[in-house]
Amino acid sequence: KISPPAHPRQSATANTQPSAPAPPALPKIEPPPKVEPPEPPPKEKFEDIVRRIERNKKKARRLVVDDRPVNQPEEPVEQKNPPRRVESYGIVISTISLVYAFYVADKAAFFLSMSLLSFLLRPIVGPMFGKHNHAVQNALKGFGIAVFVGAILFIFF
């Protein structure tokens, strides 16, 4: 006699097949250890703060000699580049052409020589303004370029 299957959907052949291997066991996850916050540093007393400030002032005094820091040179060294011979000739020629353009009343030539003269006078005029040296030189450069473009437009239009 054949015994009936244990479950109605199970067949007789299902009991004879080998079963699949069991999945591997998952590792047990442990919670992270508790980390306690660090203790706050002790509060400084007012006397300690004053003492620390006085100590820093003494250190700062050691670094200053004759009201200037030790690593600073005695006098600021300015790089003075005298105008080269070509620039000097350019200044002279543009000045002569400026005077001639004014005498003849040629507006385009006047503006052209004015732009060249302002552009060439940058290294001479700039150091006269001290710490604003670069700003003045940049302003003269921009003015010279703008007047040059205007003079070229003035010639053709």
Cα Rg: 45 Å
Low-pLDDT regions: none
Order of strands, widest sheet? 1-2
Largest sheet descriptor: 2 strands, antiparallel
Care to describe what's here?
With 157 residues, the chain is mainly α. The chain has five helices and two strands, in the order αββαααα. A two-stranded antiparallel ribbon has the order 1-2. A hairpin with a 2-residue loop joins β1 and β2 (68-69). It is elongated and about 130 Å long. It starts with 45 loop residues before the first helix and ends with a helix. The model has no long low-confidence stretch (mean pLDDT 78).
Key descriptive features of the protein:
elongated; about 160 residues; 5 helices; two-stranded antiparallel sheet
Topology:
Elements: H1 46-63, E1 64-65, E2 68-69, H2 85-104, H3 107-120, H4 122-125, H5 133-156
Helix pairs in contact: 2-3, 3-5
Short structural summary:
The chain is mainly α and 157 residues long. The chain has helices at 46-63, 85-104, 107-120, 122-125, 133-156; strands spanning 64-65, 68-69.
